[in-house]
Design goal:
Blueprint: H1 2-21, H2 27-31, H3 37-58, H4 60-65, H5 80-99, H6 106-122, H7 128-163, E1 167-170, E2 172-177, E3 180-185, E4 188-193, E5 197-202, E6 210-213, E7 215-216, E8 219-220, H8 221-254, H9 262-279, H10 281-290, H11 296-316, H12 322-337, H13 342-374
Antiparallel strand pairs: 1-6, 2-5, 3-4, 7-8
């Protein structure tokens, strides 16, 4: 029975992770109108599955980090009550943020749950030093690095575009408009149609694409940027799956029921893909449309910075948040271009600040109930 409950809790967590995280890599495709929502979602799903498949090879250190070793008293490492409490608490935290349309961090939710359980179970023995150096510091530094990376990388890329003779062009909307004419003659009332009038207006970001005109190495500039943009978006989704899959599968591995890791990783990968496919829309709109206006080149820049930081962290076994890195890149682009929507940025930062304590409270409550009332 305990095994079944743990599998359900981990599957729920993986589903929640997919719902909140899967679209983040392709948010710039959708936000810059490079791809419609459905196509961007397909790219995200396929890249996420591919990243999950290779995660065991590139990020085995992360699986050990999130199994509870070093964060909770040694006697509790692998305890079913702990693992179920962590999975359930993190899942509820992430689903709440997803419902509100806020991109949040699975890493923060998991770390918070482990911290809450550590305080309940270990009291004064909670390893604050290990938590700070191994978890909190990377989570705090990663968005700062992403913002700095985006603000540093975008200007030289923009200068290189201009040097190569690739110009930006913004379309306008040209069309015709008919208006109704109301005529009153004595007691008679008549409604007629006036002759069509040509109208001209600058389109909004949702109606108009800021395109590139010119050629680079014999290729159409816009086609080249679009191709690289798709590749970078897939790379971010791939990197996120490499970084997140082991964190979630660690709960199964610690419980000794993952069958040599492949079974557990397969379950996590499938649940993540399903969650992203069915419940990505709310977070997608926030990431794509509400942080900053984007064109394809700006989206490409943000994705390159995100993929480099997340893949590097996964290789080193450092638990950074893909959410913090990808949002940080968009913050940096918005700051550099002056198009950032600071109200949305503030709401996202508030969601980040509350994720860890929410996970800690839910984790502590779930663990207490399981050990005192559940009899596991």
């Amino acid at each position: 029975m305990t095994t079944v409950i743990l599998i359900v809790a981990v599957s729920w967590l993986a589903y929640s992770n997919g719902a909140n995280d899967n679209f983040k890599g392709v948010a710039t495709l959708y936000g810059s109108a490079t791809a419609e929502y459905g196509r961007a979602l397909k790219v995200a799903t396929l890249a996420t599955l591919a990243g999950s498949v290779v995660s065991l090879l590139l990020a085995s250190t992360l699986a050990k980090a999130f199994s509870g070793n070093g964060l909770v008293p040694p006697a509790l490492a692998g305890d079913p009550s702990l693992l179920i409490a962590v999975g359930a608490a993190a899942a509820v935290t992430i689903l709440l943020a997803t419902y509100l349309g806020m991109p949040t961090s699975t890493t923060h939710a998991l770390t918070g749950a482990l911290l809450g359980i550590s305080i309940v179970a270990g009291g004064a023995q909670t390893p604050i030093g290990a938590l700070w150096s191994g978890f909190f510091l990377p989570l705090l530094v990663s968005p700062v690095l992403a913002i700095a990376g985006a603000t540093l990388v975008y200007p030289p890329l923009s200068a290189a575009r201009q040097y190569l003779g690739v110009s930006r062009e913004t379309c306008v909307c040209v069309g015709t408009e008919r208006t109704s004419v109301l005529a009153v003659a004595g007691e008679n009332l008549a409604i007629g149609r006036a002759s069509p009038v040509v109208t001209l207006s600058v389109a909004t970001s949702g109606q108009c694409i800021d395109r590139y005109q010119g050629r680079v190495v014999g290729l159409d500039a816009q086609s080249a940027v679009n191709g690289l943009h798709y590749f970078s978006a897939a790379a971010v989704c791939f990197a996120r799956a490499v970084n997140d899959t082991p964190k979630i599968a660690a709960l199964l591995l610690a419980g000794g029921i993952a069958g040599g890791a492949q079974w557990g990783l397969g379950l996590v990968a499938a649940a993540m893909a399903l969650g992203g496919w069915l419940n990505s829309r709310r977070v997608a709109e926030t990431m794509s449309r509400r942080i900053t206006d984007l064109n394809a080149g700006q989206g490409l820049t943000g994705n390159l910075v995100t993929a480099a930081l997340v893949l590097g962290a996964s290789h080193l076994g450092v638990p950074v948040s893909t959410t913090h890195v990808s949002c940080g890149s968009l913050f940096g682009i918005g700051f550099e271009t002056g198009a950032a929507r600071w109200k949305t940025v503030g709401a996202i930062l508030l969601a980040w600040a509350t994720t860890l304590p929410c996970g800690a409270l839910l984790g502590a409550a779930a663990f207490w109930m399981l050990t005192h009332l559940g009899g596991l």
